[in-house]
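ARCHIVE CARD
CATEGORY: sequence design from structure
SOURCE FIELD: tokenized fold
FIELD CONTENT:
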């Protein structure tokens, strides 16, 4: 089994958190983001005060108001959520390029190859939590584990505003005690069937051979056998829709100072503009960004909303990025975030969970 380091990040009541941040009047009392109760609207997300009344995602707004008559329901502002999501992803990209978003507010990060904090995924996750809180003023929960299924369970373990780590040595004991309903891919029907067979925890499940599980559950039996032992080899896949286009170059000799970095900008921008010209029309170039990797492999990305894609804008970003490290540079990258004009994801984002 390969040893990987996977982080699952999940924002705490994301849409509601953004609304409370932007309108502090909403904080500290039950509120939700959702549709109007007199138009068959549903709750997309609610804060923890509302959850105390039993209000949940995907519940009708009308029913939510019955449970909690003081509930304040505000209309969703998807552009604000997308913007926050882009800012969070910009933070993720400082640690790894291997990012798989599950929704606007949730993603897997594979940091197995990351050089940050001597490769400590726990410290990377803590740093991400700190930076999101400091720059976006919302909280995220993190799970750290050797695979996706455990990382996702872990991020829920200390929610909200928590982190839970499952080290490779702890996998065995952690999974043994896990109810089978928590396993990836086990829905209500499968959980009921398992329970009828006397299987409540993964420890119970381990009594069953591969063959016996295959007889009962077909091809999913093999998967169950692995999950019961904490095995999940699914890779972290980058989003198939592009979020940015960029060009980068690693230099044979480190660039010693800011001036030598600035000298390299025009040629990088020229190749970037060639790539942008080749892109199909479903994307529109948006924010420019600059990536700098220093000689010690630490790296930083600077981006600027509203800035142009001219040389001077990139010079400005490069000055700021360089100032964060102030060390010799081994790699420079320039790019633009892309706006996806297909907009096909919006429907999926209506029910982001927690
Ligand atoms: Mg969430």
């Amino acid at each position: 089994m390969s040893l990987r380091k996977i982080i699952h990040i999940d924002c705490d009541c994301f849409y509601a958190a953004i609304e409370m941040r932007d309108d502090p009047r909403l904080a500290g009392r039950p509120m939700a983001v959702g549709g109007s109760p007199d138009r068959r609207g549903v709750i997309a997300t609610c804060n923890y005060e509302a959850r105390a009344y039993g209000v949940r995602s995907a519940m009708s707004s009308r029913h939510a108001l019955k449970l909690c008559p003081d509930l304040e329901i505000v209309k969703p502002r998807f552009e604000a959520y997308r913007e926050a999501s882009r800012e969070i992803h910009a933070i993720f990209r400082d640690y790894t390029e291997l990012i798989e978003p599950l929704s606007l507010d949730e993603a897997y990060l594979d940091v197995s190859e990351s050089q940050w904090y001597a490769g400590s995924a726990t410290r990377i996750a803590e740093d991400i939590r700190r930076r999101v809180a400091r720059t976006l003023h919302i909280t995220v929960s993190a799970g750290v584990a050797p695979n996706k299924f455990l990382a996702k369970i872990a991020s829920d373990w200390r929610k909200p505003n928590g982190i839970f780590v499952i080290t490779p040595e702890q996998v065995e004991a952690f999974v043994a005690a896990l109810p089978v309903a928590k396993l990836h891919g086990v829905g209500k029907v499968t959980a009921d069937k398992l329970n009828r067979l006397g299987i409540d925890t993964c420890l119970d499940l381990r009594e069953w051979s591969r063959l016996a599980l295959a007889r009962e559950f077909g091809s999913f039996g093999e998967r169950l056998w692995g999950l019961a032992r904490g095995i999940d080899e699914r890779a972290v896949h980058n989003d198939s829709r592009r979020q940015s286009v960029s060009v980068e170059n690693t230099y044979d000799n480190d660039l010693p100072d800011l001036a030598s970095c600035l000298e390299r900008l025009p040629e990088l921008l020229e190749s970037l503009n060639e790539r942008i010209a080749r892109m199909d029309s479903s994307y529109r170039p948006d924010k420019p960004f600059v990536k700098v990797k220093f000689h010690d492999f630490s790296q930083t990305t600077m981006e600027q909303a509203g800035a142009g894609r001219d040389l001077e804008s990139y010079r400005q970003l490069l000055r700021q990025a360089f100032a964060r490290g102030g060390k010799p540079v081994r790699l420079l990258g320039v790019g633009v975030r892309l706006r996806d004009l297909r907009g096909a994801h919006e429907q999926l984002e209506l029910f982001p969970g927690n």
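CARD ANNOTATION: Confidence is low (pLDDT under 50) at residues 344-354. Residues 10-11, 14, 105-106, 352-354 surround magnesium ion (CB under 6 Å).
SHELF: design records, drawer C
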